[in-house]
Amino acid sequence: MALFHYNNSVIVWSAMPFGDEVHKAIEKLTGQSSSPVAYLIIPDTEHTIAAKLFKAKYPELKIISVELVDLGPETPIDYVVTSKYSKKLIDKQVLQEIGITDPTITDHFEFVYLPDHANKELVMYDKNSKTLFEADLLFNLSTQQPQEQFSEELGFPKNYFPFSGYSFLARYLNPDSSIGNKILNKIANSTASAEGLRIIYGWDFDKIVMCHGNVIKANAKNEFKKVFGKVL
């Protein structure tokens, strides 16, 4: 999950289940004990489950999602990115066409929708921090470095090893693995998604935040190219 604080509004990307830690993070971000969430961005068809909890906590929040996400009548999707906007730059003008006119979103973010990805990926770019946000397009899991998401701070035992059993193949899902790159290109259907991937690569980003693996904090464009270079 990532949190943003723009125009006195909180924006949530790829929500985790709402609880005390999320509340503390929002409080730390805003400096206020009570700051309502204005927007929640669902990055693909798989990372959806926690949206209902946020909607229950903040009934006024607006949800931005890709097509085919159905959270039931109690959690309506306010703005749906459809295949009409496939593999093109979704900038301020296009966001307004979709119905999003609030500068909180239009002035700070751009998107690219990849409907040929297995999970229909909506990739987001934060212009202020020059950071790419993606859910299942690129992973950074590896045995070569400690994995932040399996750390002691998150309740895992010291030296926890997450790549055994059915998770064996996950160790290859990183930019430096030729096996992993083949898997990620297949999941992304990179040949069909090439136009969109080139637009993403054209953004001026130096970091990548993802749902699976360590944040790439430097040379992110080079890491992206390692995975999708054949179609860029």
Features:
232 residues, alpha/beta, five-stranded mixed sheet, 10 strands, 25% helix, globular
Q: Overview of this structure, please?
A:
With 232 residues, the chain is of the alpha/beta class. The protein has one domain (2-231): Ribonuclease Z/Hydroxyacylglutathione hydrolase-like (Metallo-beta-lactamase, Chain A, 4-Layer Sandwich). Helix content is 25%, strand content 19%. The chain has 7 helices and 10 strands. The protein has helices at residues 20-30, 51-57, 92-98, 103-106, 178-188, 194-202, 220-228, and strands spanning 2-6, 9-13, 37-41, 62-66, 79-81, 89-90, 109-114, 121-126, 131-134, 207-210. The strands form 2 sheets. Strands 1-2-3-4-5 form a 5-stranded mixed sheet, covered by helices on one side. A hairpin with a 2-residue loop joins strand 1 (2-6) and strand 2 (9-13). The longest helix has 11 residues, at 20-30. It is globular. The model has no long low-confidence stretch (mean pLDDT 96).
Strand order of the largest sheet: 1-2-3-4-5
Strand content: 15-25%
Q: Count every beta strand, where a strand is a DSSP E run of 2 or more residues.
A: 10
Count of the separate structural domains: 1
Structural class: alpha/beta
Report the top-level CATH class. Answer: Alpha Beta
Uncertain spans, ≥5 residues at pLDDT below 50?
Answer: none
Sketch the major β-sheet: 5 strands, mixed
Helical content class = 25-40%
CATH topology: Metallo-beta-lactamase, Chain A
Brief synopsis:
With 232 residues, the protein is an alpha/beta fold. Helix content is 25%, strand content 19%.
